[in-house]
Amino acid sequence: MRIIGWICWRWKMGIIWKFFFCCCFIVVTLSIYGDCLSLEDCILKSYFSKNEVLTDSSFQDLLQDELSKFSCKLLPGDPNPQLTLSGLERRLIGEGSHRHLSSTIQLQVPPQSFPLQSCKLVMIERLPSGVFADPFELDHLFHHGAYAGIGVFGDTNLELPSVSSNRSAVEIHMNFEHSISSGAMSELGIRIDLPLHARYAPLHESGYSEVAFGTPDLLVSCSMEGSSGMRSCLIVPSHDSNRLRTDVVWKIPCGIMSHTNVVSVVTFATAFVSTLVIVFASVLYPKPR
């Protein structure tokens, strides 16, 4: 009977270990590669298939390569509309370590040349190392119609602090919500809210770690008729940098370096006293038989 019990115990432990290994593999895979949901052409997926770490210079090189290969100017009849980014305002919404990065985007385009029904806005948010986007949260929002498509790539490990994590990026596809005619131009407006989470920040004497967000990459992806049938192409809107308000800084609370000795002593004393209480309680009040 002991042998049978030992075999059953080993069998159960094997099943538990395999289950744990599979869960870890899924989490690591999602953290490194991310996923594209309802995106036929995902720029970030192409980048992370060749690179493990996100750097601005290498990403810009790939973006320029993608634009040269999928430019709408390459299609017959010069269907490339003259898009202008007339406004971009960004701000953080909420308090604490879980906030939303809100981006309000305004585009101007001649209405007679813009195939609105066949185009989507593409925003690529290259996040700083101090924050990350939860792919499971964004997947939930996607299935509730918040986005036309979304993909999260890079390091999305929740437990890693800023000093031990790599950067991540989010690619969002959105349909144009409305068009407001204004003379010879049409005004296209769209708002994107991206939920973000703060990582454990490194120590700083001010008690806060500042995380600055850069300007997102904004593109328009359209499906147009080419020589070999329908194909996707990319348009980069022109813009006046003086009309863009993109400076966003998140002050994340962190530990103060000068407090480390006090915190260490108090933590050790608390743990030591708690251990003594448990030992004395076990000796003075033994479990009745």
Automatic annotation (TrEMBL):
Q: Which InterPro entries match?
A: PIG-X/PBN1, PIGX
The places in or outside the cell where this protein is found are:
Endoplasmic reticulum membrane
Q: Pfam families, per this entry?
A: PIG-X
Which regions span the lipid bilayer? Answer: 262-285
Keywords of the record: Endoplasmic reticulum, Glycoprotein, GPI-anchor biosynthesis, Membrane, Transmembrane, Transmembrane helix
Q: How does it sit in the membrane?
A: Single-pass membrane protein
Please give the biological process terms from Gene Ontology that the record holds. GPI anchor biosynthetic process
What cellular component GO annotations does this protein have? endoplasmic reticulum membrane
Annotated family:
Belongs to the PIGX family.
Please name the PANTHER family in this protein's record. Answer: PHOSPHATIDYLINOSITOL-GLYCAN BIOSYNTHESIS CLASS X PROTEIN
Please give the name of this protein: Phosphatidylinositol-glycan biosynthesis class X protein
